[in-house]
């Protein structure tokens, strides 16, 4: 990773900020899971919504035939309740996806993991504490679309930082190793 590439990353995220960011540190990279992971988690909600729409039209058309005491108002109410539950579950899934973020700065790696709607774990690792950085890409689609895992081994409390299903894991590994080398040279 050249110095120019690192400067390009810094310019890209110059307006990005997060809590407890130090005054002398620049954000180099902000990483989220690959979009395909979210699509995979989103797929059951789409299928359930399509099923709900099909059931709605079938009940509107044939409800009285199958159920003589069919009440369309009750059916619409139940469909709306199921729709709202699906929306809430989708929203929770989206929040978990969007707010799971890994931030690489000039001084450290910050792992922000969203756990449900109201819980969040934030861990950080200084570049000087990095012992090893490993990447893994498993499967046909991850290989084709170039996303996988980045493991950062550390001597700290947490022991291992895991970037899950991130795009371009090899670039991230090279960047962290380069920043760790620069940190070693500063000492």
CATH fold title of the largest domain: PH-domain like
Number of domains: 2
> Which overall shape is indicated by the principal axes computed on the Cα atoms?
elongated
Poorly predicted spans: none
**Termini distance?**
20 Å
CATH class placement of the largest domain: Mainly Beta
Number of helices: 5
Radius of gyration, CA atoms, in whole angstroms:
23 Å
Per DSSP, what share of the residues sits in E-state strands of 2 or more residues?
Answer: 25-35%
The helix-and-strand class reads alpha+beta
Count of extended strands: 7
What summary fits the major beta sheet? 4 strands, antiparallel
Lateral strand order in the biggest sheet:
1-2-3-4
Structural features, described:
With 187 residues, the protein is α+β, with helices and mostly antiparallel strands. It has two domains: 3-33 and 103-186, PH-domain like; 39-95. Helices cover 50% and strands 26% of the residues. The chain is built from five helices and seven strands. The protein has helices spanning 3-12, 35-66, 72-99, 140-145, 169-186; strands at residues 27-31, 101-105, 108-115, 119-126, 130-136, 147-154, 160-167. The protein has a four-stranded antiparallel β-sheet. A three-stranded antiparallel β-sheet has the order 5-6-7. A hairpin with a 3-residue loop joins strand 3 (108-115) and strand 4 (119-126). Helix 2 (35-66) runs antiparallel to helix 3 (72-99). The longest helix is centred in the N-terminal third of the chain and has 32 residues, at 35-66. The radius of gyration is 23 Å and the shape is elongated.
